[in-house]
Amino acid sequence: MADLESILAFITDIAEQAGDLIVELRAHNQLNHDYKQGIELVTNADVAADKLITQAIRERFPDHQILAEESNPDFSSIEMSDTPLWVIDPIDGTVNYARHHLQVAISIAYVVKGKIQVALVYNPFLAEMFTAIRHSGAWLNDQPIRCSQTLDLKKSLIATGFPYDKSKHLPQLMAQLTSVLENCADVRRIGSAAIDLCWVALGRLDGYYETVSPWDCAAGWLIAKEAGAKCGYFKTPHGGVKHELHSENLLVTNPNIHDALKHVLNQADPEYSI
After folding, report:
1. pLDDT tens for residues 215-224?
2. Closest CA to 212 of 77, 73, 37
3. 3-class DSSP state of 255
4. Is residue 169 pLDDT above 90, yes or no?
5. Cα–Cα dist 85/78, whole Å
6. Quick one: pLDDT at residue 274?
């Protein structure tokens, strides 16, 4: 397996290049908009950043697997084997990006045998580079970070998000949101799962729950975990979780409120599973 420090240096360089690219395209109003399945926004910047990152990986590691939102989103094609896997979201928070909001991130994770080894989430608009190496800690711009120590769910700030396709499960999602609002200090909907997870790692948030895609959460998951957060699920799939890229019913919080928030979410609709 490649040296993890060198992997981090490599992805830091390509993330900065991709960040420069998406900042420039937006600054010069060079964005074209399209919609996957008619509902999920994608821009030419998503595609260009995906291409930049995946080409750099293929040139340096031609035998590695790549799971990328735009160029290879087929999770069924991936094997959890000795062959390393890269999990890439070229722009997490595409709607934010297209609407000139600042909560936008490039997310890159390096995975071996279903375990995330190195992670990076980069927000070029705020110059925030979150990184982590397994068993070695998490950082923001090279400074170590830790999750919050809030003890009481009633005093906690919780984040979540909602799917593009709101025709499915909306009553259940609203029931969960209502239950959380009734039991925490407040809720944030930032628009980027990768940033949500990093903000839990940094203590800007106390917890986060949502169902997303693996590329949305892989890097942020390790960053939060290495910052001391408890990473799990409010509904565990039948048969258990077989790898760290399982992305349904995520629940990532500081350790003090994890069980309480899990209970609140399950109380909202105990028979429901996304």
Report:
1. 999 999 999 9
2. 73
3. coil
4. no
5. 8
6. 41
* Contact status, residue 51 vs residue 32, Cβ threshold 8 Å: no
**Is 224 within 8 Å of 202 (Cβ atoms)?**
no
Residue 30 CA, chain-centre distance (Å), reads 26
Cα–Cα distance, 44 to 220 (Å, whole number): 24
One domain for residues 98 and 187: no
Same-domain pairing of 8 and 139: yes
With CA atoms as reference, report the closest residue to 194 among 116, 114, 89, 70.
89
| Selected residue with higher pLDDT from 41 and 87 | 87
Q: Can you give the CATH number for the domain in which 255 is found?
A: 3.40.190.80
Amino acid at 273: S
Averaged pLDDT, 31-43: 83
**What is the rounded average pLDDT of the residues 99-105?**
97
Q: How far apart (Å, rounded) are the C-alpha atoms in residues 150 and 100?
A: 32
Same domain assignment for residues 34 and 76: yes
Amino acid letter, 67: L
Tell which residue, 71, 64, 124, has the closest CA to residue 93.
124
Token pair for 143: 């400074």
Last residue of a domain, one of 86, 111, 144: 144
Whole-model pTM above 0.90?
A: yes
**Residue 272 CB-density burial (10 A; 0-12 exposed, 13-18 middle, 19+ buried):** middle
Range of the domain at 173: 153-268
